[in-house]
Write a structure and sequence with these properties.
The protein has 501 residues and is an alpha+beta fold.
């Protein structure tokens, strides 16, 4: 082999090695540039270049929250403290929908809201700083959030931020999340702290009722403080009671309770009562509760409503049906057709000496009936159907005058129960109707909370209305201009270098 051929082969091998090294180096360099650009975008433009086009906007606060924050004084300082270290990865944890949304509060509040994560085990002073009187036992509230404003606080647990399938929980003792109430919970906690409570409601407990978690949330969002009023030998209605609630009692009130509640009513008290008809209370005629309500010219009958009209039945089920709101209550919700299940009929008590004005609130069709039910089998007794007619599922009673007593009485729990509200959400028409009833009952000023919609967990559709001009332009610049320019530039450099090798 000649020297020229040998030299040419060596040069060819060197050139091939250089091209190989340059190709590898180009790939490594491109990868490094992409990683660097990604890092810089995340650190500098992370929030600006983040867009939530999902229909439910899980990670973005709504216009209602933004309007509330904008209306606050510029010097407002609301502090949110997570009593734990911020998780590095929130995916598939209970904070998955909370942490990103709180970051958006900080962005949209323009300095009015701050979010911190401080573990009390590492910094014990945070406990006395937030709760100097130890009223909230924050030492045992780890993994929860504290919202603080001007020395007042509200504690929010992650469990408060979601709606759950109550039936699934009762059968399995496990939670099945169906709705995200994070924004509703935090925004209305801020609202109450910045405006203060305007009324006090007491919910009677100890009558075999199921629970009062959701009605408490609803009243809190309306700036109404809520406390339990347990059954006891010394039962009395507190003097600061603006509204007394019996939510789903499955046993009758005692004689002592009857006397105390009767005295409360005579002093202009406000009463909200909701019962239903179920296997748990089929034997309960609520004798003393009816004595109390009879004073207000209302009676709850021990009969189950059976809806015969197919147009009113839901899924062809006679005990699960629509009811219509009767004028003037048809304006209490956006839709006057509401949902009632396992109802007792509620009627005027025909008290000829009553000074109360009694009005029907919710009505069945004209073809409904009521049934007598066998308490042993839960089935209708033979010949147990009462006359077909229009029946009422709710009644309202009031007396004219200053500080006059009032009452709403429902024969269904579809407006107040944890089971119903957890399944249908805090923005359901029934819940809207309940809020209007509360406004009617409570005389003191009620500050309506921020009407934030529940974000359904299973909503993954895109909402094209959120693709604003600015967002679309940013996406266009990044994906149609910036990234292609970088790739073309790299291609030109690679081509130029390879040609000169």
């Amino acid at each position: 082999m000649s020297k020229d051929n040998s030299s040419e082969k060596i040069n060819s091998d060197v050139r091939a090695d250089r091209m190989k090294l340059f190709s590898i180096g180009s790939v490594v360099l491109l990868a490094a540039i992409i990683l660097l650009v990604n890092f810089l975008f995340d650190k500098i433009l992370g929030k600006a270049m983040t867009f939530d086009f999902s229909d439910s906007s899980q990670n973005s606060v709504s216009k209602e929250t933004i309007d509330y924050l904008d209306a606050l004084s510029p010097d407002t300082r609301i502090r949110i403290v997570g009593l734990f270290n911020r998780p590095d990865n929130v995916a598939s944890t209970k904070y998955q929908y909370i942490v990103p949304l709180l970051d958006d509060y900080v962005k949209e509040s323009k300095g009015k809201v701050t979010v911190e994560y401080i573990d009390p085990t590492e910094h014990p002073s945070i406990i006395s700083q937030l709760d100097p009187t130890n009223s909230y036992d924050l030492a045992n509230q780890s993994e929860n959030y504290v919202v603080e404003y001007n020395g007042k606080i509200k504690v929010i647990s992650p469990i408060d931020c979601y709606s759950y399938d109550e039936e699934y929980f009762r059968s399995t003792n496990n939670y099945l999340i169906v709705g995200n109430n994070t924004e509703y919970t935090f925004t209305n906690a801020m609202y109450v702290l910045t405006n203060g409570y305007s009324a006090k409601a007491y919910v009677v407990t100890g009558l075999k009722e199921e629970g009062n978690e959701y009605i408490t949330k609803i009243l809190n969002s309306m700036s109404i403080d809520v406390e339990s009023l347990p059954v006891s030998e010394n039962f009395a209605v507190p003097a600061d009671c603006s509204l007394l609630i019996l939510n789903g009692p499955n046993s009758d009130i005692s004689e002592k309770m009857y006397v105390a509640m009767s005295d409360y009513i005579s002093r202009g008290g406000k009463l909200l009562v909701a019962v239903d008809y179920s296997t748990v209370n089929v034997n309960e005629n609520f004798v003393r509760l009816n004595l109390l309500l009879n004073q207000m010219n209302i009676n709850i009958d021990p009969l189950l409503i059976y809806e015969n009209d197919p147009a009113y039945q839901l899924s062809g089920y006679a005990y699960d049906s629509n009811v219509t709101a009767v004028e003037p209550f048809d304006e209490f919700a956006s839709l006057p057709i509401l949902h009632a299940t396992y109802c007792r009929s509620v009627r005027q008590a025909d008290n000829p000496n009553s000074s109360y004005n009694t009005l029907p609130v919710l009505a069945t069709s004209d073809n409904a009936a009521t049934l007598q039910v066998d308490p042993e089998t839960g089935r209708a007794v033979d010949n147990g159907m009462i006359t077909t007619a229009k029946y009422y599922v709710g009644m309202y009673s009031y007396v004219d005058g200053v500080d006059a007593s009032e009452a709403f009485v429902f024969g269904t729990l579809n407006f107040t129960s944890d089971l119903y509200i957890s399944n249908y959400g805090l923005n359901d028409y029934n819940v809207e109707f309940l809020r209007s009833c509360v406004r009617e009952l409570v005389d003191v000023e009620i500050l309506d909370g921020v009407n934030v919609q529940t974000k359904m967990i299973d909503s993954f559709s895109l909402d094209t209305t959120k693709s604003t001009t600015s967002a679309s332009t940013a996406v266009l610049v990044v994906f149609m201009v910036l990234i292609p320019v970088i790739l073309i530039g790299m291609a030109v450099i690679v081509y130029s270098k390879r040609k000169n090798l």
